[in-house]
Amino acid sequence: MQAAGDALDVSTLPDRATAEQRLLDRDLVGAFVPDAGHPELLVAKANSDTSAMAAEKVFQRVAGEQGRPLAVTDLTTPSQGDPTGQGLFFLLVALSIGSYASVAVIGAAGAALSMRIRVLVGLGVSLAVSLVGIVTAGPVFHVVDHDLAGVWALGWLYSAGVIGIGIGLHGFLKRWTAPAMMVLFVMLNFTSSGGVYRPDLQNGFFGGLHFFWTGAGFLEGVRSLLYFDGGAGFGGDVLVLVLWLVAAGVLVTGAALYERRGRAAGKQAGGEAAGSGTAGSGTEEFGTEEFGTEEFGTENSGAENSGAEEEMEESAVAV
Question: Which helix (H) or strand (E) holds 292?
């Protein structure tokens, strides 16, 4: 244990009951119960199967030094279709792909629509994505075998936040929205979600993102709801999802104002161009009037010449 150094954070608890409660509160990865004859490791695999495996490897070595086999007790019961507890991560992936792919469609098809209409379409699409997700994870693959309504509600909240962020970004970024969505909801989102490795097994950057990123809020919220009776920080996870939805609303509002300002500037520029064209047409008409005046002057000159010729003819006759 001492050889692990800072890689392990070891503390001593007064009794087994306290250890079990700390595990169910998701404060611990594992709790080792020393016994001369039957050493035991308590874990909560639904919290993170990979973290439980890491703890098991550590304490198997401890038990091995005592020459005794290590008994591992899981305090949680994974669903039938998700024995490792990692199936929920694939639900997160499905919801994410369905949501940010919908943003591209809404941005392309709804460019001529008002921002209000695009938001309403986005809410409808997020509802459809969340329904497909819960049907697939529930009745089809049995990853979720209870609390279907609660998991669906978290999925809709998550999907609405992702689509709302995408619609807002499209108002500013246009064709660059897709790369931005990939960075936000794939590269940063999946890695920091804790679907495979929880923050205690990640580096500081992704471990820090885990506490406020939207994918982690959804995944940890669903885990708490399904396996920890709605406790273990469930309220905080819901708050994360709500704050991301609020951020989406702020971004959409900013994008609507930005687009309105752009349309106003375009109309103003069009009005100035039309005014300039009208002024040019008036100058040409004025020039035509001057040209007409010159023609009038030419006619007078011709009359004077004709009169002079008549006088010369009369003079010739007189001679």
Answer: helix 234-318
Helix (H/G/I), strand (E/B), else coil: 232:
coil
| Pairing label, strands 30-33, 40-43 | antiparallel
Torsion sign (Cα): 182, 183, 184, 187:
positive
The total of other beta-carbon atoms located within 10 Å of residue 216's CB is 26
pTM of the model: 0.80
- Judged on CB neighbours under 10 Å (0-12, 13-18, 19+), 22 is middle
CB count within 10 Å of CB 287 equals: 10
| pLDDT one-digit tens code per residue, 72-120 | 999 998 888 888 888 999 999 999 999 989 998 888 877 678 889 999 9
CB atoms within 10 A of CB 267: 10
| Torsion 127-132-135-141 (CA) sign | negative
In total, the chain counts a number of residues equal to 319
C-alpha separations of 231 from 11, 224, 307 in Å: 23, 6, 117
